[in-house]
Design a protein that fits this description.
By secondary structure, this protein is an alpha+beta fold. Helix content is about 20%, strand content about 20%. Strands 1-4 form a two-stranded antiparallel sheet. A hairpin with a 3-residue loop joins β2 and β3. It comes from Streptomyces albiaxialis. It holds the Pfam family cNMP_binding.
Amino acid sequence: MTTTFVRRGFLGCLAPAHRALLMEYAKETSFPADATLFEESAPADRFWVVRTGSVTLDVQVPGLGPGAVEILGPGELLGWSFVRRHRWLL
């Protein structure tokens, strides 16, 4: 991740020492459109910072299928459940 990107958005709000700690675990990743990044109740073992594009969070609505509940864009954090290593929650 570039230094410029890291200083904007969520990561830009952190103290430099905290940001450096998180960046030790960072790696750049891309996903194809319509990829599933995690499923509700699965172990939460990572997080993502959206650099480009968007991520749609959805839930399964009984009898209707998936329904979008939020769309995240550049600079936003996906995976708050990771902070305490719980399970994915929406």
